[in-house]
Design brief:
A mainly alpha, B alpha/beta, C alpha/beta, A: mainly alpha, two-stranded antiparallel sheet, globular, C: Rossmann fold, 2 domains, 9 helices
Amino acid sequence: MRPYAGAIAFFAAVGLAPLVVDDAFLLDTLVLILVWGCAAGAWNIAGGYAGQISLGHSAFFGLGAYAAALCGVRWNISPWYGLAIGAAVATAAGAVIGFLSNRLRGPYFVIATIAVSQVLLLGAARWRGFTAGSEGIPVPFRAGFWTLGIADKRIWVWIVLVLALAVYLVQLYLERSRRGFQLAAVREDEDAALSLGVRARRLKVAAIAASAALTAVCGALWAQYIGFVDPLYVFSVDLSVRFSLAAIIGGLGTALGPFLGAVLVTTVETWLRAEFGGLGSHLVGLYLILYGTALILMVRYAPQGLMGWMRK
Amino acid sequence: MNPRLACEALDVAYGEFQVLWEAGLAVAAGEIVTVLGPNGAGKSTLVNTISGLLSPRSGSITFEGQRIEGMPAHRRAGVGIAHVLERRRLFPFLTVHDNVLLGAHNARARPHRDETLARLEALLPLLKTRRSQLAHTLSGGEQQMVAIARGLMARPKLLMIDEPFLGLAPRMVDEIGRLVRRIRDEHGISVLFIEQNVELSLRLADRGVVLESGRTVLSGPSAELLRSAEVKRIFLGEFAG
Amino acid sequence: MDAKVSILSVRGVTKRFGGITANRGITFDVAAGELVGIIGPNGAGKSTLFECISGFYAPDEGEVELDGTRLTGLSPDLVCRRGIARTFQRLRPFQGMTVAENVMVGALTRTRDVRHAREQAHEWLRRVGLLEKANAHARTLSTGQRKRLELARALATQPRVVLLDEVTGGVDQRSIPALVELVRELHAGGLTLLVIEHNMRVVTAVAQRIVALHMGEVIADGTPDAVARSPKVVEAYLGQAYVS
């Protein structure tokens, strides 16, 4: 039980918090921590466990967000379907990126992932007929569980907590299973792994597709929670960076790391918003400076992230 | 009599991977010495250690009476050691002229740069005729000559060449061989070179040093090493006739 | 002379890189249980041959067959699953894993059960003499130990043929006999081995047969005795002057 103590403590704390906390602001922060934690954990599957660093995961997040929003606005069906549709489309997109990962290595792959997310951004922003263009889509609030119209933030915490547990368990599976071992080998040295009979290509594609699907589910839930899908935000490079940052700061390739990293990243961001008020464009630059500094410090002094630092 | 260059008991490793064990070598003034040995024996490693590209874990390198194993590579040129690297490594997009001039970068050689260049042009006419040609457009043999000229611009007392004949036509090989002899005969420069072709090397050199699995196992005058049964055994194993 | 069952067959393998022909019409057979040494001066094409056999390169011409099954042009992981394992000249352990975990990656190609793979890994480590290092991190091993690790890892895939790319490179002369003994033991256990080696004393001591390459072609194929005396081989390594 001991190695899981941290995870148990974390999830128990999060699960019990809504019972004792009443403040809407705190609960909101908690929901966001969980959403970003899930997204970071999903990113970690591709970036941490498979070693495929991508800065284009907002593509999948945005696909999920749009799927949920369009379900409500265009197709008049439950946004829960949006989770499934978003996951399916993202899986296909993930397979494409997985294909790219077998053709491009290192920095070239990263650039390709950024390109994919930006192409989707432009598509969503211009395709007025389908996506309402750059104005974005306000997600209609229809009260009820089936329509994911939930006003009580406490319930939201529990909903996202379920996803968080799922993401956590998937990562844990990757640490202990046969596939996980093989994936780790591919991450360390793909040629050596191939020489040992590991189906490197297939594993990479599968990891990226799974990562994409889970990220899309995060996006769908987030869209319902926030109530507005803005293409310039959901497909942004900033968002992609945030996922990777939370995972790296928390501990790349560890199951709990992304959640810890999300705690740090979200609280800092929330504090910044509270201090400086409003989401003005000048704030974006500030985030990046802070992110960059945090990353440099992390890589220099604690390359294993918060998890590594805690283990000492 | 003190040799110009003396290496003793060198242990050299790439990280964890040890390549040389107590390797030794000596080159007298005005001598041409060749380093021989099967692949992976450590020949390039030894030469790279002498020129400072690698640092030995232990052992000593003495050049003209001065201990240099701790000296950084860029200062060894100043002391009189020039190293022509494997596959020439000319700057491909600079002209022959610029490549050669860069050889005189060190403080000792720079004041005499023009004079040295003039002397080299007499030795190697192609330096004049091809002076504005971009290095990567030259043939293998021509590149080798330019690389050697660049090495000589440093006014060395010891010139080290890693695989001078690699990829060259027989005629070029003869010319380079003759050039090396002239360098020694006319200027008293010692030459240390590594070459795959054993017979060719021993016909050019005065003495040979044989490395096997990172250790110096044999050394002596070329005439002795040529046709030696021991050399055969090192390269071809116990069965070698 | 007993009829030898050929297990690995290389026929006319040719590989070109731009203007250079690294392998030209390489043809030879390896019988089951044989230990064949591949020798040749630098640039002779030995490594290229290994890459062609193990699937990292696809030959431009020629065929590679294992027990009658065509391997030519298959991806490296497929070649391994069909029964050919290899080690690398520049050692490539999985640095972030322990020694046992490294070997498990190989074992997991043959078994789905992680626990079973761990047991097998320990068994292989015992065979190569690395058992006490099972839980150590791979990056803490010395060169000789890394060579053993690579071997154990490759063997864990239960190959029919093992390609050893330089067993003694980077290893102190004093440690060589122990490694050679290990290779001999594995061979005695029935393993078929193809070994690239520069140290001729080692090759002639363990190999039953030697194939000599020079400038991409096979110039000799026979017992160590015959090959070492072959005029072509002597000339390739040393020059005409040494041909008695």
